[in-house]
Amino acid sequence: MKKYLIITYGCQMNENDSEKISGMVEELGYSRTEDEKDADLIIMNTCSVRENANNRFFGNLGNFKKLKKKKPDLILAVCGCMMQEGHIVKKIKEKYSFVDIVFGTHNISSLPSLLEECDAKRKLIVEVLEDSDKLAEGLPVHRQFKHKAFVSIMKGCNNFCSYCIVPYTRGRERSREYQNILSEVRELANDGVKEVTLLGQNVNSYGKNLDDPVPFAKLLKMVSEVEGIERVRFMTSHPKDLSDELIEVIRDNPKICRHIHLPMQSGSSRILKLMNRHYDKDTYIKLVKKIRREIPDVAITTDIIVGFPTETEEDFLDTLDVYKKCEFDTAFTFIYSKREGTKAAVMDGQIDEKTVKDRFDRLLKLHDEIVLKQNKKYLNREVDILIDGKSKTNDNVLTGRTSSFKLVNFTGKGETGDIVKVKITDVHTFHLSGEVIE
Ligand code: SAH
Ligand code: SF4
Ligand code: F3S
């Protein structure tokens, strides 16, 4: 039997695409392997969001050159966001011509026919579409987990934040029909899935362009009503259009998880404007306060970019200030990375490395303090945990998440996919510890 290996970089969208790609190649008769020496087909699903993602990909790709020499029949396919960039495909053609297949984010469903073509030709095949109106429905899926699943509810992005490559790599925003989403969720529930995570670059604009518009809040409610689904998560929410209706739906519906990921990017109104984010410092803080007031046990997490072009010390202090005022449960912090083709890449005032590093370290210090403070609120509390499995480092310890997405390692009885009551006995920056209570 032929074997395939898939390597996925980047966000949950890519993970979800990889699950579909895996499903398709399994239908062609391949079985999965984690060992590259065993593989007849290697697929690399790439991310382009920051420079280091690109570097990691090219590093790994370079390593496969030797493997290809030893095993000339090995098929090497590369796909994902990086392949939507002309200069990347050019580089592959010129310097990595041992690659067999290049395809993009808009045509993952062509992989079976590309593989067929590849068998016949054995030379580099490139098929990248600039954009596509099609939403591939009903592709086979190899899911990573039995008890939880990703469901893409839309693709693309129309926001063009000035630093971001995603609108160029994923094309224009398109929402799936809610009927298709609901039937996918029902099928997942029949399959034993307890938790679904609805995915989109900006879920709050879901449904706006459908013939029969459906607001995201309504979709969320309908999904949470599917029998068998115990938990619903979603990401990501753009602060500019998070509606009151959405806050109410979450508040009134215990199956919807107590967690909102709300990327702020910067605390400075001036920088936010340059970033094309359509909100300012005050509206962001007010929004967070409103959410916390309406849904008291909610966790709010965020993304922050440090060192956007022209960022001054004063701008950066605004970021720290918002962090303190919003007391995020956690944050993903990034150093600004210049992406070719974006507006910010050609802005004057790129910030020097030393200044950025210093700001980044100060932000991390505040982050650690506040995260620990937020986690301490959980001490001695009883929480419901959906068990994800055994801890990687200790077979006697189980691991899972609270509704608010806190990672908890705990002792006691339970199986993957069970929801159990756990008492929190200790807290740390990156996880909580506890034990199951009968
Ligand atoms: N659609 C999501 C974000 C997807 S990208 C949203 O708008 O919230 C995930 C995160 O990567 C972004 O929130 C941003 O913080 C970060 N990011 C995107 N482009 C970046 C860049 N050029 N440099 C550094 N970080 C970036
Ligand atoms: Fe990128 Fe902004 Fe779209 Fe998010 S909303 S994917 S940050 S352009
Ligand atoms: Fe995701 Fe990276 Fe593409 S973050 S959308 S895989 S550029």
From TrEMBL:
GO-annotated cellular components: cytosol
Q: What class of enzyme is it?
A: transferase
Family annotation (Pfam families): Radical_SAM, TRAM, UPF0004
* Gene3D superfamilies cross-referenced by the UniProt entry: Methylthiotransferase, N-terminal domain, Nucleic acid-binding proteins, tm_1862 like domain
- Its EC number(s): 2.8.4.3
Q: Which UniProt keywords apply?
A: 4Fe-4S, Cytoplasm, Iron, Iron-sulfur, Metal-binding, S-adenosyl-L-methionine, Transferase, tRNA processing
Quick check: keyword tRNA processing in the entry? yes
Q: Outline the extent of the Radical SAM core domain.
A: 143-373
Catalysed transformations (reactions)? N(6)-dimethylallyladenosine(37) in tRNA + (sulfur carrier)-SH + AH2 + 2 S-adenosyl-L-methionine = 2-methylsulfanyl-N(6)-dimethylallyladenosine(37) in tRNA + (sulfur carrier)-H + 5'-deoxyadenosine + L-methionine + A + S-adenosyl-L-homocysteine + 2 H(+)
Which domain of life does this protein belong to?
Bacteria
Instruction: Say if the entry is tagged with keyword S-adenosyl-L-methionine.
Output: yes
Care to name a GO molecular-function term for this sequence?
metal ion binding
Stretches assigned to the MTTase N-terminal domain? 2-120
Residue limits of the TRAM domain?
376-438
Q: Provide the residue positions that the database annotates as binding [4Fe-4S] cluster 2.
A: C157, C161, C164
- Where [4Fe-4S] cluster 1 binds, per the record, is at C11, C47, C81
- Cofactor note text: Binds 2 [4Fe-4S] clusters. One cluster is coordinated with 3 cysteines and an exchangeable S-adenosyl-L-methionine.
Write down the required cofactor(s): [4Fe-4S] cluster
Q: Which family does it belong to?
A: Belongs to the methylthiotransferase family. MiaB subfamily.
Quaternary structure, from the entry: Monomer.
Checking PANTHER family in the record gives: CDK5 REGULATORY SUBUNIT-ASSOCIATED PROTEIN 1, MITOCHONDRIAL TRNA METHYLTHIOTRANSFERASE CDK5RAP1
Per the entry, what this protein does is: Catalyzes the methylthiolation of N6-(dimethylallyl)adenosine (i(6)A), leading to the formation of 2-methylthio-N6-(dimethylallyl)adenosine (ms(2)i(6)A) at position 37 in tRNAs that read codons beginning with uridine.
What is the recorded name of this protein? tRNA-2-methylthio-N(6)-dimethylallyladenosine synthase
Which taxonomic lineage is given here?
Bacteria, Bacillati, Bacillota, Clostridia, Eubacteriales
Gene responsible for this protein: miaB
